Amino acid sequence: MPDGQAGTMWFAPPREVPVRAFATLPEAHRAARRTAWSDANRAGAAIDSFLEGPCFNAAGDLLVTDIPNGRIFRVGTQAWDLVANYAGWPNGMAAAPDGALLITDYRLGLLRLDPRTGTIAPVLETLVSEGLKGLNDLVLDASGAILMTDQGQTGLQDPSGRVLRLWPDERIDRLISNGPSPNGIALNRAGTHCYVAMTRSAEVWRFALRADAMVAKAHCFFRVPAGTSGPDGLAVDGADRLFVANPGHGQIWGVDPHGQPLFRLDCTGFGRMPTNCCFAPDGRTLLITESQSGTVLAAEIPPA
Fold it and tell me: Bridge-partner residues for 149, per DSSP?
């Protein structure tokens, strides 16, 4: 390729943003063991945790899930508080307006956790009596509707993953039903468009949201490099920039509202499994669950 021609075909290399350790799962909470989850997802390895679902509550506390052990933690820089421990596989998590935590649990469906008591109650267990494939992640819109991904074991061999919307009046929409492994989910700042990470096709899809649940012209907004694992958790900042966790490559990608890559956050100094991310209340600090090491990372994102 002649010199200079590459610039006409590809974007400039994304700017590198450093990451640092914020908090590490304490040894008191680590006991490596095989589980049914690790048999299916980690080739039978004995693991002590697999962190996911970072979110902040109204009090400004950071919480994370631990999928194979059914644990919810409140993260401190030194000690971690065990908020709940139950017989499920909690993945995504989001704070509800009333202070409860909503959890997409692969085994049990959509759950509601009262963080004051640790009580967990089901919100959605089936779709018209049909079992869910396996919920993964969720996001709430301004109306209180919950959008969630029903991923299961879908992929290129079975592109039947779903994106669901549960309204406050308990109506349910199937927005997408042909997803090759729908995983992370996020909304743009206006709440008009939805982003969904399709892990097995290494893509992030984007589509407009309508109250009548009609979805048209869903398209590929961003692609991560092909590899052993595609995009996972997503987060949007105040400038409408999308941040994409990319386990396998050990990266977080920052993308502008047009799909142009802006930033690269290399997490491989800690591990190759940055599974999810969220913004702190300051709107600038990105917190990242790095699940191979059981560490929460942090990065200061440059302003727009």
Answer: 163
